[in-house]
UniProtKB/TrEMBL annotation, chain A:
The lineage of its organism: Eukaryota, Metazoa, Chordata, Craniata, Vertebrata. SMART domains: TBC. Gene3D superfamilies: putative rabgap domain of human tbc1 domain family member 14 like domains (1.10.8.270), Ypt/Rab-GAP domain of gyp1p, domain 1 (1.10.10.750), Ypt/Rab-GAP domain of gyp1p, domain 3 (1.10.472.80). It comes from Aythya fuligula (Tufted duck). This is TBC1 domain family member 14 isoform X3. Residues 1-23 are annotated as: Disordered.
From TrEMBL, chain B:
Belongs to the small GTPase superfamily. Rab family. It comes from Aythya fuligula (Tufted duck). Keywords: GTP-binding, Lipoprotein, Membrane, Nucleotide-binding, Prenylation. It comes from the Eukaryota. GO terms for cellular component: endomembrane system; pseudopodium membrane. It is a lipid-anchor. InterPro entries: P-loop_NTPase, Rab_GTPases_membrane_traffic, Small_GTP-bd, Small_GTPase. Transmembrane segments: none annotated. Residues 191-201 have a biased composition (Polar residues). It is found in: Cell projection, Pseudopodium membrane; Endomembrane system. This is Ras-related protein Rab-25.
Length: 413, 213
């Protein structure tokens, strides 16, 4: 190797700009802008008293700066220690998941110990596997089926882009215009999916994968098609799973009752979910509930965004993934429990706000949500109302709804 | 993308890891665009660049991932390492602390990547020789003991940047070749981004593929 070759390098002509690396880190931070100097020779010297005073001030400033630097060094050290601790605990969890839990999934997945470890957050290296297992594959989708759907999607894209006349009535009810609109929407949404990660945008490493999965889904479920919010769900899955497995998880996830209700925009059913949510809202946070009622703040204002994207757009990504972890464990009720956890965490602030501020706050949550407090807050939410669980409340409301619909069809929206 | 750019036999995914501020982004931009940015900001998400080079009689497209997001979002670690066949673990020769944590980066790497991944330790910023805190010999020994390739680079004056990437890509290529010889029916994983709009079907050999080594 050629380390020695570079000895003459310093003499190599470089432009002055290139030659000097802007590197403030190498200046002792504490002394920049802190220079004690006598007056220039052409001016009368400082009086002794003033010079003494300046010297004193200078020394004080240096002491302060040193103190600050020491403090910062300690802070950095502490941060490093915390990081090491976190990494070690993740490392240990990986071992447990890989050696104990995953090989015995069926018997262990519901045990208390596993549930507790699960709540702590699944380590990134096994997250995809655990999600896949927990979501399951009720639809029996194979990798081959994904390939077929993708091939069909590509066929459609091609015919749309070349302007070839559609084979009419291929699937009745879904016109070329619809498809084109949906294709445009997918393109637009991909560019807006986690833009700051730069992973899914044009030219990014998973741009085409995201495009493929969403396209394949529109061919797999033309009755559902592409609905905004899906791009976020697919993106989070892509971050954790290989393409075909991500598609399988995506399709099965969207097939869950709550997701189907939302993505098919079944308005009546969505309202039922909101109503069930409000039952638990009132039970857990009566004061805030009353405040929201007084301000006419209905749950759709904030829940739609949260549920459609499974929080991946609203929460910091790491937190969103932890919410997904437990959502995979507990199912749809955890989505609503999370919502209540958020409301509880910010209860004091929200109680002091009016309609518009609450709406603004909840649709753009603070970016520095503290994860431990956040999960403590969710843990404090009880998903039981007068001895009834989420599923029971929801079923009862659905029944009421059906009866009402029967009575007056005009109420259906 | 130009058609020339698309002419390759292999796609190798290589990841850059190491502490914030060691110069990962500038190593990447020096290699792929021959640029150095004095005022480069912290990488927020993933910086992602490609460059196609010749290795032996094959054309290899290096798909290089660089991120600070890794430090920021644990949620993307899995995606970051998935399918990587090479890694550059970068430290700053003028900051011992960035070298001290190399083994933590290695641990994370081996937790997520294939065990056969080719790893190179890179001591960057040799242009700041007067501020050196990590002796070359020390890092070299560490690399030898841990089975890593090793080079010192300067993204600022270009020293060894090209060599670093070429060396690791060659090493990966040789590993792939050896594996091919060993088993003719090796499992191939397509890393090539299949453009959904592309009308031409992937053509046999030209099809970008990456052998899982």
């Amino acid at each position: 190797m050629e380390y020695e070759e570079k000895t003459g390098r310093a003499h190599r002509p470089l432009s002055p700009k290139q030659n000097v690396r802007k590197n403030l880190d190498f200046e002792p931070l504490s002394t920049t802008a802190l220079i004690l100097e006598d007056r220039p020779a052409n001016l009368p010297a400082k009086p002794a008293e003033e010079a003494q005073k300046h010297r004193q001030q200078y020394e004080e400033m240096v002491v302060q700066a040193k103190k600050r630097e020491l403090k910062e060094a300690q802070k950095r050290k502490k941060q490093l220690e915390e990081r090491c601790k976190l990494e070690d605990s993740i490392g240990n969890a990986v071992l447990t998941w890989n050696n104990e839990i995953l090989p015995n999934w069926e018997t262990m997945c519901c045990s208390r110990k596993v549930r507790e470890l699960w709540w702590q957050g699944i380590p990134p290296s096994v997250r995809g596997k655990v999600w896949s297992l927990a979501i399951g594959n009720e639809l029996n989708i194979t990798h081959e089926l994904y390939d077929i759907c993708l091939a069909r999607a590509k066929e459609k894209w091609r015919s749309l882009s070349t302007g070839t006349a559609e084979v009419e009535c291929e699937d009745a009810g879904f016109s070329a215009a619809d498809r084109e609109a949906s294709l445009e929407l997918i393109k637009l949404d991909i560019s807006r999916t986690f833009p700051n990660l730069c992973i899914f945008q044009q030219g990014g490493p998973y741009h085409d994968t995201l495009h493929s999965i969403l396209g394949a889904y529109t061919c797999y479920r033309p009755d559902v098609g592409y609905v905004q919010g899906m791009s976020f769900i697919a993106a989070v899955l892509i971050l954790n799973l290989d393409t075909a497995d991500a598609f399988i998880a995506f399709s099965n996830l969207l097939n869950k009752p709550c997701q189907m209700a939302f993505f098919r925009v079944d308005h009546g059913l969505m309202l039922t979910y909101f109503a069930a949510f409000e039952v638990f809202f009132e039970e857990n946070l009566p004061k805030l509930f009353a405040h929201f009622k007084k301000n006419n703040l209905t749950p759709d204002i904030y829940l739609i965004d949260w549920i459609f994207t499974l929080y991946s757009k609203s929460l910091p990504l790491d937190l969103a993934c932890r919410v997904w972890d437990v959502f995979c464990r507990d199912g749809e009720e955890f989505l609503f429990r999370t919502a209540l956890g958020i409301l509880k965490l910010f209860e004091d602030i929200l109680t002091k706000m009016d309609f518009i501020h609450i709406a603004q706050f909840l649709t753009k949550l603070p970016e520095d949500l503290p994860s431990e407090e956040f999960f403590t807050s969710i843990a404090a939410i009880q998903m039981q109302s007068r001895n009834k669980k989420w599923a029971q409340i929801l079923a009862a409301l659905q029944k009421d709804n059906r009866e009402m619909e029967k009575g007056s069809p005009s109420l259906k929206r | 993308m130009s058609s020339a750019e698309e002419d390759y036999n292999f796609v190798f995914k290589v990841v850059l890891i190491g502490e914030s501020g060691v110069g990962k982004t500038n190593l990447l931009s020096r290699f792929t665009r021959n640029e150095f940015n004095h005022d480069s900001r912290t990488t927020i998400g993933v910086e992602f660049s490609t460059r196609t080079i010749a290795v032996g009689d094959a054309t290899v497209k290096a798909q290089i991932w660089d991120t600070a997001g890794l430090e920021r979002y644990r949620a993307i670690t899995s995606a970051y390492y998935r399918g990587a066949v090479g890694a550059l673990v970068v430290f700053d020769i003028t900051k011992h602390q960035t070298y001290d944590v190399v083994d933590r980066w290695l641990k994370e790497l081996y937790d997520h990547a294939e065990p056969s991944i080719v790893v190179m330790l890179v001591g960057n910023k040799t242009d700041l020789a007067q501020a050196r805190e990590v002796p070359t010999e020390e890092a070299k020994m560490f690399a030898e003991n841990n089975g890593l390739l090793f080079l010192e680079t300067s993204a600022l004056d270009s020293t060894n940047v090209e060599q670093a990437f070429e060396t690791i890509l060659k090493e990966i290529f040789q590993k792939v070749q050896k594996q091919k010889q060993r088993s003719s029916q090796s499992s191939t994983v397509s890393l090539g981004s299949e453009s959904p709009e592309s009308s031409a079907p992937a053509q046999g050999e030209k099809r970008p593929c990456c052998v899982a080594i």
